[in-house]
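Handout, section 4.2: multi-component inputs.
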Amino acid sequence: MRPSTLRDKLLELHANQEGLDSKYNNQNLIRCVTNYLHKKYEDKKIQRLIDDMYSRHNITEESTDLRRRNQLADYIDSIVLSRIRDSYKSSKLLDVDSLDELKFKALIKQIIIHFGYEILFIPINNTKNIDIIVHRKDVKIAVLAIKGDIGSLIGVKTIRQLRYIANYYHCEQALLFTNTYFCPEAFSEAAEIGVTLLDRDKLMPLVKDLIAGRQQEEKKYLLSEIEEPKNTIYLEGEIKFPKTKVQVVFVKYYIDENTGALIFEGKLTNTGKKPASNINVEIKIFNRNNDCIYLNNFPVGKEKLESKEEIAFKCSFDEIPQHDWENLCRYQLKLEYKNTYKE
Amino acid sequence: MRQVYNSELHKFVKGYFNTRGANIVEQQDNFFIVEFPGGLREAYTYVARVAAENKDINLLAKGSKALNNMIRECASIAAFSEVYVSYNTESVKSSLNHKNCCDLCPFFTICEHKDKCCDFCSYYKDCNTNLLNADFLRFESIKESKTLNIICFIFLVELSNDYSLSQKVEKLVSVLIDMDTGEAIGNIRLDGLINLDMKPADKKKLILDEKQYRHFMNIARQEAFEAIRNQLEVFKKEIEGTLKDKIKSIIDKYEEEYIDNYAKSTLEQLDKLQEEALKLCEREIRGYAINCDYHLKNVILMHTVKDLRDLVFRLHETGSEVTIPAEIFLNNVMIRCSECNTEIDLGIICRDGHVTCKTCMEICSACGKSICTVCDDESYICSTCGEIVCTDCVIQCTSCGAVVCPSHSYRCATCRKAYCIDCYEICNVCGNSVCHSHINQCDACNSFVCSDHIHKCSVDGGLFCDNHIHECSFCSDYLCEEHAMKSSYSGKIICSKHSGECSVCKNIFTIDELDRCTICGTTLCPSHVKTCSSCSKVYCSEHINHCNCCGKDYCSCTEGIKCKLCMETYCPGCINSKGLCKACEGFTLVDREHKLVRNISELVPEVADYRKYYLGTAHEVNILYAKNILTGHLVVFNNNGKILSSRKISFIEFLRRKLLKD
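Output:
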């Protein structure tokens, strides 16, 4: 799973706006690219980016394909609803395994809606993305459904990737549904990084509830209340890591109640098969004028991060006075490290 | 005829009679007699001549009524055959191609783009195994082989809604059942069977009793229903809208009627009305019911194998050969992802022979090379567009070190180094990319410009772009807008060194446009300089004489001569031998109402009292002579009507001066 690329964003824009000018002089396109880059650039630079994207990809045709998929997705929803109805009429439990991947995802969507979650956003191009973003009680939740082969186990990698995508969309929580089971390490990892796992055993009661029109299993499996911290601050986040091997599993920030300092905490993992060394984390905090006003650059605890190994990091911005909190707008986390791949 | 009794046709005919419970009781050379249950006997022949001679004998030949009836009857029940099926290179090759849409897809009827099979179809994964960067070459050793006896039921399924919408969808659904386990294996694309090798079974190998057949048939029907279920839903959704509208219109109509009749009807009548509406709705719903008919068209007993076998592929990128294990069953090739072990529908092979599925695969957005997650190939994410880039294509920003793809790295036109979007600017004039070290900013418009298009003002040293800089037309020095001067005469741009001011009009001119008066030395612009027509020296207007008669200037080199009649001074060229100027020479009689006469009369009122008027004109001067019998008046005025002189002159004096030489 990867966060949306600029191409995905342009496709999304095109798919949503059928009449968008194909000569791409539309202000919407410029706004879309600016939003993606999180920074205001000269119009000429943006135009150059747009020109490049249009010259390399057939955005208009691809977006037509996306629109078609969306149109067919309605039919998939309708097929799943009919299966639910059939299951209710025949008093037989819906055979989740007989559904293909798209129908399984549609079933999870119905469960989510059934339990009162409100859909915020459905990424149009979700081949390597999450399925839905929902919200409930002011908590933004990323939802991913994985239809696995019977007997297969979902590993830690998927959970980390989900957390990473959830971070990208600024979701506080993440829900991962599957028709199979998770490997034992997945549960400890998920609990640590705020991902709720729903395996076959937990999913089936929810499916039963959905079919019967009840909501009794909701509290048991789906909802977990979030404690509201006293001092809150909201920063838009951007994670930059030029190489793909070492990834940020999660990152969170909060104001320490005792010291009043802004703390950043997170965890890194080496997803590659060779060790990575000299890992350095740089956190920049920007004000509303997009000027970097605070910077912290620090190495992580270990010199060498082995393959599949995880490491936590923590840094504190003690120097930010309380009256300056409201000026803070965005943070940027950048990873620097050396791969030992070539050695 | 005896040979015919050994033919395939006779075998078919015999088989047909056997299934009908009939027996061939007599077999002659030219005909045979069949006895049907109940004792009915019929004679048949394969020879047309025999049938023509005897009307009681039915002909069994191509196109004959009896044979056609048999074929039709068999087809309506189902054809049954038994074959040995095996895959071959061609069938595997065609299995590895991306399939086009077929009518198995539930969305086939509604989808607008039927050119390429997509994952919305439930069979997509079963039908498609496509490797993006490799071509199948040949088979390698078989690792595991399992013999399978399969019974394949082919149904023609008709979905129709004849009553209200006249919609009809027909599709062929095949169901494969393993005869040993009795489990359904799945569906198969019928067109995929064409490439398979099929050999008819020599002798019936499998004994299939009716009970077993019925059992398989029931399973097949169930599977066919499951296969068609999605299609039914799509079909239903299609007509749902129309049905809803109809029901709504019925309800609306009856609601209106109910309200109208509410006060004046009995409860029984109102109930009746409601029932009537309900019945109409039910009828409408019944009308929209979808009929789903299954016709068994064919039953094939297949003896085949399911092999786990190595396949050799050639990579597009390097041309090298790699071996991939695959499971081959009929026209289905199953390859598993080396990373997540799921069956691939779309994948790529790395140079080391790892196959990755579309979820696990990474492709360099710049060169299209596969980045294998199993081999742990290095990959990067472009900080601008977020696309994946391989090690060979990745570019690092010279300034900030950000990683970018080749499309989003910009080379500085000056230093040729690569920069990211944050560390370069676009020249406002030529559009070239320039890094922050080599970019300049115009002091006037603040736009970024490259070193080729930035210029330093020679006066104040400020930097300005092409649009805000000027060049002195004499010394080619660069001048900003503040220090550039423009000639009022030619419009040329000049610096302060090469400009001058006209002492008369005070405007700015280039130095070569200005002249100095020969006498007083004042600076004069082309509009205010006077040139002697004789010696060509230049003068200011104060130091040169002007001949009103010819309009030329003349300086002290030429002495002016007075006209003896009008007493005005002119250049020597304008005075004739009689001492008269050109105007005085050419007097003509004009009317009192002449425009010039009237104008002069207003300025010099005494002129109005004269009886005759003579007017002489030359270039800038006009002379009017007004006369009575003896007295006269001579007025000299220019083209603007300004009176230059006015005096009385008697007619005799006028004639003497005009006609007599001195």
